[in-house]
Amino acid sequence: MMKLRTDRATMEFPLAGLKMLPVIVLCLVTLMHQCLGTDSIDKLLKKHPTWSFEVQSVEAVIKNALHKHKLSGNNFELTETMLREKMRRSLAPGATHIVRKVGDPKWESNPENVPHFFDAREHWKDCASLMNQIEDQGACRTDGPGVVSSLMADRYCIFTNGTFKEKLSQEMLMRCAEACTHDSFQLYSWEYATEEGIPTGGAYGSGKGCMPYRYPACDHKSLYDVYAEGRIGKAKLEECKGQFIFDDDCPTKCTNKNYKTSIDKDRVKFTAFYFLSMDEFYIRNEIMTYGPVSASVGLFSDFLEKPDGIFQSKEDRIGLSDEKLMKIIGWGKENGIKYWLCMHTWDTWGDKVFKMPRGVNYDLIELIVLAGVFEDLDSE
């Protein structure tokens, strides 16, 4: 059953019988698609007749998020402007609704059968070495390409039962989807990875893959010292300051001259990408079934300090940027607090793997969660 939920009512109908529906219902669905500002719902309906989706008004999401934040007691100011900016960076231009995946026959329907602790690296051991690596974004301002390319490689390794263990090119997404000199608009990376696909590409200086990354890892904390009032310790890497960053045209061939496969034959494509429900049970189901997902949080000064256990925000935290993207690779519980197991793109941001509170939309981590699949959709 598919649920199209509006602000006033919920409509349910079986997708398998979509072609047999009256014309008036088909028109209603068509109008709904136009309001979404994206054709992803059309593609998902056609490719995934056994999945279920929920359609939420952007205005309702913003209103509910502000209300819940006020009740939660979180110690940072959340404004409507901040939420609208987060939506703008994640949704198609003009989108008035968000389509969220809320059902999948491959998911576990019984909560008792979902483990209390899960680490994708332990579950898919053949892909663990790949999952452990998420490249530093270097001096570039956007982290979308790093997160999406890493997550995509993880999921493709899982899809191929561990036979594919190559990194996918962050560089390709940086040059063709987003821009090194701009803040992240992750939707562009997801769209490019699905519509065009990205080739292999190793880390800076690795000489591996079709398109290795051009920027070395650096100390991102130095960029924010002025805001953090000198509370951040010395970094181990060179500062990002002084590195010349620029935006190139989208390449049509591999930049690694020693790589023999053509760029088009080397590309890997998501079959589809989608937003997930904010309900942590659905997010856990998705991770357990297909692999890591992407999420984002607001970036504050205390994120530049090494987390001790589960991340807990500090009273004097200072806002630094709109958001920080990461991938979620698992979950657990520690000292009575449920957590997400996360990875990020900054080598100098404490441990590469860290924990964030789970199930309470902490720092908006569950507001915008995305994933993609490589399924042979016609076989569903």
TrEMBL record:
InterPro entries tied to this protein: Papain-like_cys_pep_sf, Peptidase_C1A_C
One family name in Pfam for this protein: Peptidase_C1
Domain Peptidase C1A papain C-terminal: 114-373
BP-aspect Gene Ontology terms: proteolysis
An MF annotation (GO) of this entry: cysteine-type peptidase activity
Name of the protein described by the UniProt record: Peptidase C1A papain C-terminal domain-containing protein
